[in-house]
Write a structure and sequence with these properties.
The structure holds 2 protein chains of 2 kinds. By secondary structure, chain A is of the alpha/beta class. Chain A has 7 helices and 9 strands. In chain A, a hairpin with a 2-residue loop joins strand 4 and strand 5. The longest helix of chain A is centred in the last third of the chain and has 15 residues. By secondary structure, chain B is mainly α. In chain B, 83% of the residues lie in helices and 0% in strands. The longest helix of chain B has 31 residues. Classes of the chains: A alpha/beta, B mainly alpha. Chains A and B meet through helix 3 of A and helix 1 and helix 5 of B.
């Protein structure tokens, strides 16, 4: 994606949005409307639906009720194509352990159809400080290094929206500084959604979507 | 941002190359498939000697060995992604149709490699008469496409379900039986010197139907 594409305005809105996994309500009825540039924190107790909301917005999950709208440069983006305009780093994201960090990202870049995949991979690895371990197999990575790789994966195609689910998990101070740098860099033009309950990460955001579920999945 | 057919082709090609590289490094399926093919043919060869003129038995044996040597690996193409927790990664970089098409192409390639070893090994160990190569290769090609398409489709359907093993058997049986019946019947007729046109037509129709159904279904398979 070009720098111009990143700079185009993004607007994400949800209306009467809720989601259930079977009988358990994972996301209470919610309405929101956010736009770039900026950083938005998605907060709420465990099980209130923070990760579910990110998955719905990026088009991986269809909400049980309600609708979402994702606009980029004034055009509505349908759920199946939102992954091209948004990058997601979440603890559930895993990589091929038989491949190195660079090979995993190279695969993702080629699958995205990026024209200069090697340069995109180098840039992403550099941004998260993984360049010295680029050729090591992911099987040998620590939890913190895997988390950095998730961040690199999310920014690889320079999406207009960066979605970070608990981005500081497993990271040391240097890793948390990487998160702050990424968020700060994106917030100038793009939109960053951070699902977190960490006060340090919440402080990066100027707006907040608060989820009011009772937590741990509302049985109602 | 890339768009349209070129990005889809790039995605399918990248997934195919990823599957090949992963198989080359882990030897997940190829070693098991070749081991099964070699040991089963050697065991039959020891038990009954060269089957020579029993082309009816050889036709069945050939397709059974090919099916069982490759089925587990092909049907697990998606299960490996679920168990390795890489399905989410894949879904974030490619559409379900691109993922499934890449995996289908890999399964076709995988079958082709196993057949390259199996066919000459079978001819030597079983003492099979030389086939009519044109008709034999046509049966093999159409049978291969049908086997790969059905096992990829079933693998995609069962990947995210509980009790995959039981489901796999239940869903596979009705899909695989017509393929095996046509392929075995056609191979037997080929060795008997009869026409194989009806078997080829059936296999071709089945392959087209399976591919068409797969393309229609894949985009809806993993909607939560």
């Amino acid at each position: 994606m070009s720098a111009t594409a990143v700079a185009q305005q993004v607007r994400i809105a949800g209306e009467a949005l809720s989601h259930r996994y079977g009988a358990r309500r994972a996301l209470q009825t919610l309405a929101f409307d956010v736009a770039s540039p900026g950083v938005v924190a998605v907060t709420g107790p465990n099980g209130s639906g923070k990760s579910t909301l990110l998955r719905i917005v990026i088009g991986l999950l269809r909400p049980t009720e309600g609708t979402t709208r994702f606009e980029h440069g004034g055009r509505a983006i349908e759920p199946p194509r939102r992954r091209l305009h948004a990058g997601l780093a979440t603890p559930e994201l895993s990589f091929y352990e038989e491949f190195s960090a660079a090979e995993n990202l190279r695969f993702a870049a080629e699958t995205h159809g990026l024209t200069d995949a090697p340069a995109s991979v180098r840039t992403a690895l550099d941004a998260v400080g993984l360049t010295p371990r680029a050729d090591d197999r992911v099987a040998a990575f620590s939890s913190g290094m895997k988390q950095r790789l998730r961040l690199a994966f999310a920014i690889l195609h320079r999406p207009a929206v960066l979605m970070l689910d608990e981005p500081g998990s497993h990271l040391d101070d240097a890793g948390r500084a990487v998160v702050e740098r990424l968020v700060s860099g994106y917030s100038a033009h793009g939109l960053v959604l951070i699902a977190t309950n960490d006060p340090q990460e919440m402080a990066l955001a100027e707006r907040r979507i608060e989820l009011h579920g009772r937590g741990l999945g509302d049985p109602a | 941002m890339p768009n349209g057919a070129s990005s889809s082709t790039a995605a399918v090609w990248a997934i195919l190359r990823k599957e090949c590289r992963s198989e080359w490094r882990t030897r997940y399926g190829l070693n098991a498939a070749l081991l099964f093919a070699v040991t089963s043919l050697t065991a039959v060869s020891f038990a009954s000697g060269r089957l020579g003129n029993r082309t009816d038995i050889m036709a069945g044996l050939f397709w059974i060995v090919l099916l069982f040597a490759t089925l587990t690996s092909m049907s697990h193409a998606f299960v490996r992604e679920v168990e390795g927790r890489t399905m989410l990664t894949l879904r974030l970089v490619a559409s379900p149709t691109e993922i499934a098409t890449g995996k289908l192409l890999f399964n076709l390639l995988f079958l082709g490699v196993v057949e390259l070893v199996l066919v000459p090994l079978f001819m030597i160990l079983m003492g099979a008469p030389p086939p009519e190569w044109g008709r034999f290769l046509a049966l093999l090609a159409l049978g291969t496409v049908s086997l790969a398409a059905s096992s990829t489709l079933v693998g995609a359907v069962i990947a995210q379900t509980r009790g995959r093993g039981a489901l796999f058997a239940g869903v596979s049986l009705p899909l695989l039986l017509p393929v095996l019946a046509a392929a075995v019947g056609g191979t037997r007729e080929m060795w008997a010197g009869h026409s194989v046109a009806s078997s080829l037509r059936l296999l071709a129709a089945y392959a087209v139907a399976l591919l068409a159904a797969s393309l229609l279904l894949y985009d809806h398979l993993w909607e939560d």
